[in-house]
Amino acid sequence: MAVHESQEPGAFSGTDYQAIIGSLPDALLVLAQNGTIVLVNAAAEHLFGYSRQELVGRDHRGILAEGYRQGFQRLFKVLGRDQESGHSSPFEAYGVRKDGTEFRGEIACALLDTAAGLCMSVSVRAMHHRQEPDDGLREAMSLLSATLESTADGILVVGTDGQIAGVNEQFVSMWGIPRELLATHDDEAVISYVLGLLEDPQGFLDKVHELYSHPLAESNDVLKFIDGRTFERYSRPQKVADKVVGRVWSFRDVTPRLAAQDQAKRAMADLAEQAAQLKALAFQDPLTGLANRKLFNDQLAEALRGDRAISVDVLLLDLDDFKEVNDILGHHAGDEMLTEVARRLRSCVRPDDTVARLGGDEFVVLLTASPEPDAVAERIVASLNVPMWIDRTMLRPSLSLGLASVGSDTVAGSELLRQADVAMYAAKAAGKNRYMRFEPDMMTALVQRTDMDAGLRTAVDGGQIFVHYQPVISPRHGEVVQFEALARWKRDGELIPPGQFIPTAERSGLISAIGLQVLRHSFTELQPWLAADATRSVAVNVSGVQLKECKFADSVLQLAASCGADPRQLVLEVTESVFFDPDAHVILQLDLLRDAGVRVALDDFGTGYSSLGRLQDLPVDAVKIDRSFVSMVRTGAEKLPILNSMINMAHSLGLTVTAEGIETTAQATYLTNLDCDSLQGYLFSHPEPESGLELALLRSADAIDEMRGVRLEG
Ligand code: C2E
Ligand code: MG
Ligand code: MG
C-alpha cells in the first residue's frame, strides 16, 4: 500500500483510468450540459440494466423517476454558481431500470471542465438495504404528490437558497408560466415573468423579502393582476424536523368569487336604491318634487302628536284663475307655472318646513314652531306676485291663502285643514290675491254658503230674483244710452250681491233660469224707456254655463219676441273665459244671436290672460274696460298708455268701448279725452231697481252736466 501511496498519479495510463472507472462499485455517469449521457461505467450498465451503447447519447431524464427529472439541470446551475466546491452534497433520488422497475439511490455530483465542454459526473449508489421503509415513504410521497396535483390551489415550494424546489400543475396554469420557461430552471426569469403580470410588483417583492427575513412567519394577502384577476396568497415555512428548509406558497384564484360577491353587492345596492326611489315616489308629487298629500298628512299628524307648547300652522293656498292659464296657454305652460310656484313656495320657508302639492293648483305649507306664520303667509303672497315668463308670455300669478294655527288646544289634523280651507275660501271671496287667518265666524259664513244652494233654488222658483239697472252714458251724446241689468237676490228682506250667489248658481246650473229671469225683468221693466228710442239698449250679463246650452240663442230670441223687445236693443255681456274652451258651440250660439241683431260685449276687458291681439278673433261688438284700469286714473294728469292702446286697438277693430267703474269726474274726463264711447259708474248712478230708474237718469244728467262744466272750464 505504501508503494501505491507514494506513486505519482500521473503514472497511470488512459487504459488504467478506464479500468479504474470500470471497476468502481458505484455507477458512474457523465452528463453533458444539455442532459445527454456521454459516459457510463459497467456498474451503471448493471444498475440501470442498459448496455453502454443504449445509455450513451441518451437523455439522462429517461433513467430517472417522475419527480426527479429536472434535478440535474438545476444542479448544473447551482454548482456552476458555487465555483469553489463544484460538487453537491449527496442526495437521494429514484432511478428507473430498463425493465421499468424503480430503485432508490444515493447520488453525488461534481462539475467537470473537459475539453468537450462543461460536464457533470454523477455517481449513483443503489440503496437496496433500505427498501422496506422506503416503500412507505414512496407511498406517502405519491399520496402527497397526488394531493398536490388535485388541489385547486397553485403551489410553489422555494428552498432556503431561493431556488424553486417544486410546483404543481395548477400553479403553472394559474400563472400561465410557459413550460419552456420553467424547464430552463432560470428562477430569475420566472420571477420577472411573474412580476410582469401583477399590478403591484414591488409590493409582491417586498412581501417575499419580508418573509425571507422572518423565516417562521406565515402570511395571507391578496395579489391583483393587471388582467383584472385576483389571487389570494398564503405562505408558510416548510420545515423538516423543526428546521426551516424552504417556504411553501399557495395561490388561489378568487376572481370568480369576488366577482360574484361584487355582483351580489351591486344587486343589493340597486335594490336598496330602487326601494328608496319607490319610497320617495310614494311620498312625492311627480311634477313639482314637493311632498304629496300622503306625506303632508303624516307630517301634520306627527307635528300634532308632538309637544303641545310648539305651535303648528297650516297655510292652504290655491292659485287664482289658474284654469285660465291652462286653457289659454296650454297644459305645458300650466305645468311650468306650478313648478315655478313650488320653487317660490320653498324659498319662502325654512328647509325643515313641509311644502306639499295637494293636487291641481292647490298647495299647502306646514310650519312647526314658526315664530311668525303671518309673515310667512304675507311673504308667500308677495313672492307669487313677482311676474314670471312662460313661453314668452309674462304672467303675474296670484293666490288666495288661508292660515290656521294650533297652539295649546288639541285639534285634529283634518280640523286644522278645514279651518285653513275656510280661511282660504274667505280670502278668495274677499277679492283673491291675499291671505286670511281663520276666524271662528268664518265657519258661520261657510254654513251660510252651503245653505245658499238650497236657498237659491227657492229664490228662483219663488220670485226672489230682482234686477237693478245701472245707466251707461255717452259723453258724445251727453245722455244715458244704455242700462246694464245686474241681478239681485232679495233674501229675507236683505239684498245679496251677485258676486255671492252667481258662482253657486253657476255650479248648480240654476244660472240658466236666473239669466232668463233677468232678461224677462229687463225687457219688461225697461220696455217704455227702450221703446222711446231705438238707439237705446239694455246690457245683460251671461255666464259661460248658459252659452253651453244647446238652445240658448233660441230661448233668448224667443223671450225677446214674447216680450215684444227688439233684439237690436239687447247687448249680451260675456267674459273672456267663455272663449277659452275651444267649443265651437259657444261661437255658434253667439253667431246666431248676432245674426238676429243682438250685440256681444266683452266684459271686464283686460283682466284675463289673453293678449289684446286676440281681440280680433272674437265674435264681439264691444268691450268694457275693467274698472281696475279706470281706477289707475287718480288726478287725471297721469300718462296711462295702456288705456290709450286698449281704446285704439278696439276702435281699429270696429268695436265700441265702455269704461266701467267711473267714480270721479277726473276719470270721466280722462276717458272721454281718450275717445271712449261710453262710461258707467257710481259717478253717474249706482244700480237702481225699476222704481229708481227716474232717479238714476236724473243723477246721470247732473253728473254729465258737471263733467261738461269741467271740460268747458278746462
Ligand atoms: P259686471 O258685469 O262687471 O258689473 C259691474 C259691477 O260693478 C256691478 O257689480 C256694479 O254694481 C259694479 N259697479 C258699477 N259701477 C261701479 C263703480 O263706479 N265702482 C265700483 N266699485 N263698482 C261699480 P255687481 O252688481 O255686484 O255685479 C257684479 C258682477 O256680477 C257683475 O260684474 C257681473 O259679472 C255679475 N252679474 C251681475 N248680474 C249678473 C247676471 O244677471 N248674470 C250673470 N251671469 N252675472 C251677473
Ligand atoms: Mg257686466
Ligand atoms: Mg265688468
Quick synopsis:
The chain has 714 residues and is an alpha+beta fold. The chain is built from 27 helices and 26 strands.
List the domain count as a whole number. 4
Shape: rod-shaped
Kindly identify the CATH topology of the largest domain: TIM Barrel
Largest sheet: 8 strands, mixed, barrel
How many helices? The count is 27
CATH architecture of the largest domain: Alpha-Beta Barrel
Query: Between the first and last Cα atoms, what is the distance in angstroms?
Result: 166 Å
> Roughly what is the average pLDDT, rounded to an integer?
87
Structural class based on helices, strands and sheet pairing: alpha+beta
Q: Radius of gyration from the CA trace?
A: 56 Å
Strand order of the largest sheet: 18-19-21-22-23-24-25-26
Uncertain spans = 1-6
Portion in helices:
40-55%
Number of strands: 26
For CATH, the homologous superfamily of the largest domain is named as EAL domain
State the name of the first-level CATH class of the largest domain.
Alpha Beta
Q: Which ligands, by name, code or SMILES, are bound?
A: ligand C2E, magnesium ion
Give the strand content: 15-25%
